[in-house]
Design goal:
single chain; TIM Barrel; 8-stranded parallel β-sheet; 8 strands
Length: about 290
Amino acid sequence: MEKIDKIILGSNSFEGVGYLSRAQTRHYIEFFSKKENIIPILEASFNLGIRSFMCSNNSNILSSLEDFKNSSDLSILAVIPNAYEYARESTEKGVLGAILSKAKKIDLYRKVRMGLQAIRKIQGIITKDLLTILTNLMDFEMASFHSYNVPGVILHGQVTDLALSSHNREIFDVYQEIIRERYKAQPILATHNFGILLPKLMEWNIKLPIVASFNKKGFIMKPTQEECERLLEKTDYYIIAKKVMAGGRLSPEEAFPYLSDKNIGSVVLGIGSLSEAYHTLSVAKSAFQNS
């Protein structure tokens, strides 16, 4: 496995995902709809030495990467599928309508760059099962990142947990095979159910890095904080911690000491403003410099 950086910039805020209130979510959606508000955070993170960026193919993020002068020096950890965007649009248009709507928003220049074959694949989704939908979406969404260095591809937690709840090992097998063989990247799984996923992966003899919530408040640590910590302590799986500030309920100074002695390989940090970027990432670098 290619080495993963200790500190990773996340993109939840850029995609309008907030955990404190609806007002925060609305603010993120409006504020980060303008790439002029995303690019300065990318620049600040880069200036602080952060070289990894975990993101989906959100149109505002892709537009920001195109205009960010150092994007070629970043390692992109692509999150697929773009579940948040599909979820928002599917409430009005249905799942298929949301997917087709996303394709229509892509300008002609980018469609040519992505390849028309990837665009056409989504036309046949309506009667497909989850596995077929996923494989079609993988080609469609990965085409968005073809200009960038993508050493890792993360299966969105909603898909991971859906496959987990249905005991569908085939999804994990096909996913990791496609990512390794077709895209020459490291497959990674995100989850909101670390304490359930890890034992199942061990049972299935599937060893992949896992992105999961770890924070001292136990926020989205399922089934319990204690069980997640017990499994974390003894595992040899590579763990990337998310929700480390409990969705904004902890300051960096409160959050990072909890992680410093844990069996965690990397942390992903979402940033909601330019000042937050300098503060949070500076504290993180200090906290994790020797780990």
